[in-house]
Design brief:
Length: 104
């Protein structure tokens, strides 16, 4: 059983929460399954709109999925969330991603 299978099994058993959705999003992103990554990361953000790491990964998944406009909106919002939380590292990483988008 893969990690995704284990996480999906937990979800099937009703253990839905922000960390599970974030972990699924990251696992799908690592597998280059961008659509499923986006789905789970958006769900993670429904649980916690201040989860700056989820904003960052969602923006990355959208970029990889050729959704540049959505990625830009996501990352800009994520920068604001991270700034308000004092999550400087995530803020900087999202700012770098935005600059990459601007170069395309």
């Amino acid at each position: 059983m893969t990690m995704i299978d284990n996480l999906e099994s937990m979800l099937d058993k009703g253990k839905d929460n922000v960390l599970l959705r974030f972990s699924l999003g990251k696992a799908y992103l690592d597998q280059k399954d961008y659509s499923d990554a986006i789905l789970h990361l958006k769900k993670a953000l429904e649980f916690d709109t201040d989860y700056s790491a989820a904003w960052k990964l969602l923006g990355k998944a959208q970029m990889e999925n050729q959704q540049q406009d959505e990625a830009r909106k996501t990352l800009q919002h994520g920068v604001n969330v991270a700034r308000e939380k004092g999550d400087i590292q995530a803020m900087r990483e999202m700012q770098v991603a935005l600059r990459r988008l601007d170069k395309k």
